[in-house]
Design a protein that fits this description.
Oligomer: single chain
Structural class: alpha+beta
Keywords: Coiled coil, Endoplasmic reticulum, Membrane, Signal, Transmembrane, Transmembrane helix
CATH superfamily of the largest domain: GOLD domain
CATH topology of the largest domain: Jelly Rolls
Radius of gyration: 31 Å
Distance between the termini: 80 Å
Subcellular location: Endoplasmic reticulum membrane; Membrane
Number of strands: 9
GO cellular component, one term: endoplasmic reticulum membrane
Shape: elongated
CATH class of the largest domain: Mainly Beta
Helix content: 25-40%
Strand content: 25-35%
Largest sheet: 5 strands, antiparallel
InterPro entries: Emp24-like (IPR015720), GOLD_dom (IPR009038)
Order of helices and strands: EEEEEEEEEHH
CATH architecture of the largest domain: Sandwich
Protein name: TMD11 protein
Length: 196
C-alpha cells in the first residue's frame, strides 16, 4: 500500500486469543528524479503500533526501513496495526510517497529447515510432529473463536427478531385502537347531528 511520508495507516486484523502474529514489512521511497520507487529507504524508519480490541497498546516500537515485528494476542477480536514513518521533515516539505510491502502471518510457526537437516531422522519426525500438533492447536483456537462469533451473531439476530415482533404487535394495537376511536367519534358525530 502507499502512504504519505508523515501519514499514519492502520490495518484491522481479526485475531483469535493466544495467537502469535508475525509481520514483515519493507519501505520504499518515491524518487522524483527516477520517477519510481527506490529499492530501499535508508534513514527512514517505521513506528509500528498494535492495539488490542480493548484499546490497550500491545506493541509500540520504532523499526528500520525493513523489519519484522511480532506479538501475541491475549484477547480475541479486532486488533489495529498502525504504521507511520519517522520522518522529521515538516508537513509542507514531506510530500514524498512511500510504498510499504507488508506480509502478516497469523498463528503460523515456521520450521527451521537448517535445524531439521542437522538432526537425524528420528528427531526430524519428532520436530515435524510437534509442528503439526502446534498447527492443530491453532486450528482449534480459530474454530473456537469462530464459534464464539457465530453465537454472538445468532444472539443479536434473535434479539432483533424479537424486537421487530414486539414493534409489529405494538403497531397493530395502535392501529386497532385508532380505528375504534375513529368509529366511535364518527358515530357520536352522526348521532349529535341526527344523521343516524
Amino acid at each position: 500500500f502507499h502512504i504519505g511520508e508523515r501519514e499514519e495507516k492502520c490495518i484491522i486484523e481479526d485475531i483469535p486469543s493466544d495467537t502469535l502474529v508475525v509481520g514483515n514489512y519493507k519501505v520504499q521511497r518515491w524518487d522524483i528524479h527516477k520517477h519510481g520507487f527506490l529499492e530501499s529507504a535508508p534513514g527512514l524508519g517505521m513506528f509500528v503500533t498494535v492495539t488490542s480490541p480493548t484499546g490497550e497498546v500491545l506493541l509500540s516500537k520504532l523499526y528500520g526501513p525493513q523489519g519484522t515485528f511480532s506479538f501475541t494476542s491475549y484477547l480475541s477480536g479486532e486488533h489495529i496495526i498502525c504504521f507511520q514513518s519517522n520522518s522529521t521533515r515538516f508537513a509542507v516539505i514531506a510530500g514524498s510517497k512511500l510504498r510499504i510491502h507488508l506480509d502478516i502471518r497469523v498463528g503460523e510457526h515456521f520450521l527451521d529447515e537448517s535445524a531439521i537437516q542437522a538432526k537425524d531422522k528420528v528427531d526430524e519426525v519428532n520436530v515435524r510432529l510437534e509442528h503439526l500438533i502446534e498447527q492443530i492447536h491453532h486450528v482449534t483456537r480459530e474454530q473456537e473463536y469462530e464459534r464464539e462469533r457465530e453465537e454472538k451473531f445468532r444472539k443479536t439476530s434473535e434479539e432483533t427478531n424479537s424486537n421487530i415482533l414486539w414493534w409489529a404487535i405494538a403497531q397493530t394495537l395502535i392501529l386497532i385502537s385508532v380505528g375504534i376511536w375513529q368509529i366511535k367519534s364518527l358515530r357520536d358525530f352522526f348521532i349529535a347531528k341526527k344523521l343516524v
